[in-house]
Amino acid sequence: MKLLKETCAKINELDEAVMQEAKARQDSLTKPPGSLGKLEDIAIKLAGMSGSVFNKVDNKVHIVMAGDHGVVEEGVSAFPQEVTPQMVLNFVNGGAAINVLANQVGAEVKIVDMGVATDLESDKVINKKIRKGTDNMVKGPAMSREEAIAALEAGIEVVNKEINSGANLIGTGEMGIGNTTPSSAIIATVTDIDLNKLVGPGTGIDSERLEHKKEVIKKAVAINDPDVSDGIDILSAVGGFEIGGMAGVMIGAAAHGVPVIVDGLISAAAALIATRIHKDVFNYLLPSHRSTEPGHINILEEIGLEPILDLNMRLGEGTGAVLAMDVVEAATRIIEDMATFEEASVSNKG
Asked: Is 211 tagged catalytic?
């Protein structure tokens, strides 16, 4: 708990004065004010994070957290649990979508075992295993409060190491069969959204199993009755180790003033946990894309974020997050490299 408290104490609000400077700079560039839309908004927000008008996000690191879930025994996924370690090894071998897209944008992928149900024999996987999968949240808490804190602090430790090594843009992703179920349970806990508008097919379950999945989530939330104001309690009641790890990454990056790109449903559920633990983590989050999972847009609305991309994706792994990295870097290039009206000797008078 000490690391979590110390990290939270370092999180600041955005620097509004520098954001105004960035806005003035944007309005002086050779374009109509606001004509580059979200690119301008991103650059202004980055200025508030760092306290500088000009920022670099050229050292991109994407952190993939992996963990298994006891609730899989309830039949909520189309895939068996052994797919989790198989896919993690696929990441290690560079064969997954996240590897291809990360290579495309020049991001380094870091894979973290937060709670995979089997031991992973690879020195390319960062071992932060809390234990071999969470408990079945339908039968009681998914993890203890101490384990939830350990997951959060593991995420902080991972991101601290990367930022201290020079990372200036962080992506969040995950792998864990069944993890849309705890993610939806987190959203159901925090919001009043009807489960019919919240719960999606995840890995591709049929309509009958989808109805069963909703019942499982409803039962888990009722049995555990988490404290909606306490992010740690929500995480311990219905969360996953990889969700806690991602939330820790967000908290740790915020303490350094480094932007974090949020991926889809599971990553956004982690953002809900992180912002319940410290509200100003919100200031350091950039939403990457709009997932086709129905609960995703509801989370973004809950924490007040608008996605950068909309590509009808729902894969996970952080695929949307890495795709958005080049957009974020483009925003930094525009504000720094584009000429002002004065520099270009272009009239901006009507």
From this structure: no
